[in-house]
């Protein structure tokens, strides 16, 4: 049983998934900080001041606190945008690598030795 557990945990996909989850959580923390510490103060402060609140989490209407939800939506949009550009970049890199492989796999022309042998044969025929 322990052997099966060890095999399962050390399988490549499980380790890759664990790394992806950890990196995703760290990336989420970075985006949350970006929204809370940069975007909200720079862009949303005028709107928050007009609403009479200091923090986005304090936004509410008839008891419905929608400020935290608005912050989560902004986080989602930022994460989605960044992931879009990451995926596009990865696709571009893969297509460039594929083109490079196709160029490398293309049949090469005759070697220098083969060309010289052909010239020698043609010269020998002329004599």
TrEMBL record:
PANTHER family in the cross-refs: LARGE-CONDUCTANCE MECHANOSENSITIVE CHANNEL, MECHANOSENSITIVE CHANNEL MSCL
Family, per entry: Belongs to the MscL family.
GO cellular component assignments: plasma membrane
Stated role: Channel that opens in response to stretch forces in the membrane lipid bilayer. May participate in the regulation of osmotic pressure changes within the cell.
Protein keywords: Cell membrane, Ion channel, Ion transport, Membrane, Transmembrane, Transmembrane helix, Transport
MF annotations from Gene Ontology: mechanosensitive monoatomic ion channel activity
Record-annotated membrane-spanning stretches: 12-35, 64-87
Name of this chain's protein: Large-conductance mechanosensitive channel
PROSITE patterns associated with the record: MSCL
Intracellular or extracellular location(s): Cell membrane
InterPro entries: Mechanosensitive_channel_CS, MS_channel, MSC/AndL, MscL_channel
Membrane topology: Multi-pass membrane protein
Any one Pfam family match given in the protein's UniProt record, by short name: MscL
Coiled-coil regions listed in the entry: none
Binding partners and assembly: Homopentamer.
Top-level taxon in the UniProt lineage: Bacteria
């Amino acid at each position: 049983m322990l052997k099966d557990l060890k095999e399962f945990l050390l399988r490549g996909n499980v380790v890759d998934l664990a790394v992806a989850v950890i990196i995703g959580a760290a990336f989420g923390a970075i985006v949350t900080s970006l929204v809370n510490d940069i975007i909200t103060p720079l862009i949303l402060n005028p709107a928050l001041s007009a609403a009479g609140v200091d923090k986005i989490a304090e936004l509410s209407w008839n008891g419905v606190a929608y400020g935290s939800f608005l912050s989560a939506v902004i986080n989602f949009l930022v994460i989605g945008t960044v992931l879009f550009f990451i995926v596009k970049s990865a696709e571009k890199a893969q297509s460039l690598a594929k083109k490079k492989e196709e160029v490398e796999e293309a049949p090469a022309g005759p070697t220098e030795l083969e060309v010289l042998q052909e010239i020698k044969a043609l010269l020998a025929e002329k004599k």
